[in-house]
Design goal:
This protein is α+β, with helices and mostly antiparallel strands. The chain is about 25% helix and about 30% strand. The structure holds 2-acetamido-2-deoxy-beta-D-glucopyranose (7 copies). This is ADAMTS-like protein 1.
Length: about 280
Amino acid sequence: MLQIILLLLPAVVSDQWSVCYPPSICAARGSNVTINCTFTYPPENDIKQVLWCSMRSNNGKCHYQPYVYDSEANNSQSFQYIGDKTSDCSLLISNINQAHSGEYRFRFITNKKDGRWTGDPGVNISVHDLRVSMCRSRENGSTIPGDSLILTCTLNCSGSLAEVQWFKNGDPIQQSEPVLTFSRITAEDSGNYSCSLRNFKTTVSEEFSIYIEDVAGSPTVLIIVVSLFSLVFITAAVMLIRSKSCLVNQAYTNLPEAKDVQQEDEVEYSSVNIKPKEMLQM
Ligand SMILES: *[C@@H]1O[C@H](CO)[C@@H](O)[C@H](O)[C@H]1NC(C)=O
Ligand SMILES: *[C@@H]1O[C@H](CO)[C@@H](O)[C@H](O)[C@H]1NC(C)=O
Ligand SMILES: *[C@@H]1O[C@H](CO)[C@@H](O)[C@H](O)[C@H]1NC(C)=O
Ligand SMILES: *[C@@H]1O[C@H](CO)[C@@H](O)[C@H](O)[C@H]1NC(C)=O
Ligand SMILES: *[C@@H]1O[C@H](CO)[C@@H](O)[C@H](O)[C@H]1NC(C)=O
Ligand SMILES: *[C@@H]1O[C@H](CO)[C@@H](O)[C@H](O)[C@H]1NC(C)=O
Ligand SMILES: *[C@@H]1O[C@H](CO)[C@@H](O)[C@H](O)[C@H]1NC(C)=O
């Protein structure tokens, strides 16, 4: 019986002083991140001071300054305490960036002697840039019209993203899926693509450039065009050789005809009535 009580006792005691954090947090640079947090302590205590420290700047155990948030000091605008002095210790980090990556711990101090507690270990936050990655049907060489191509908006430390906003040359496009599919790409799809989280335009990724050569410039089309031209050329050449003698005559008769038209114009201007018959004799 006594053994059971002794086994239970430590659990009860540590339950009284505790800080509960979420599992590690993956954040997109430029977003606002909430660390949802709760804390408990023995009932006879009243909370006097609440503190948050970053283990990046606080090399100790969070017992001393610097703090990213201190309820008894002026704090950076990036860190807002959205909790209270009873059980909610949530912290909001706005416009987060890579320099905010690291471990964070919550500390609280009560009105009782030795009434102080730090939640150790804390919560890890890793901050990454959103990125556009590409997957395409053609392995080698440049993408040509008709190929399929997929752009994906990714955050290195996270699984698939929920709602995103895509941009083409900086202008928003109607697509909230993190995957942008071009089943048959065209030259008009060329452009600089980027993405951001739906509600945080500040998380916008670097631009990803897609260049699709115009139809006439694409190798397949080029080959067809070149082949067609060759065919016409060869045919023309063959015909030219076969009808060489004929052609001389034709050229002779064609020449006056051409002059005919010219002369007819002159006829109108000068109002002299000259018959085409005379012209043909020239
Ligand atoms: C924190 O809690 C709020 C509401 O309680 C919820 O909307 C939000 O998604 C939570 N954040 C995380 C990172 O779990
Ligand atoms: C906070 O800032 C105000 C004015 O900016 C100043 O009067 C006050 O002393 C500061 N408080 C602390 C704890 O630094
Ligand atoms: C992010 O937090 C800042 C500071 O609290 C606030 O001004 C801004 O509106 C927030 N952005 C969003 C999208 O909630
Ligand atoms: C946070 O990350 C550091 C370094 O990667 C690791 O040593 C530590 O155990 C992590 N802490 C938590 C609470 O996950
Ligand atoms: C792509 O090129 C690499 C080397 O340049 C070659 O090993 C590979 O077989 C090519 N793949 C295709 C599908 O042509
Ligand atoms: C993404 O993570 C991998 C390893 O997980 C790393 O090698 C790479 O540099 C990271 N990329 C970015 C952009 O953070
Ligand atoms: C895309 O970006 C490149 C370099 O970043 C720039 O030279 C090009 O003009 C951009 N294209 C468009 C259509 O904005």
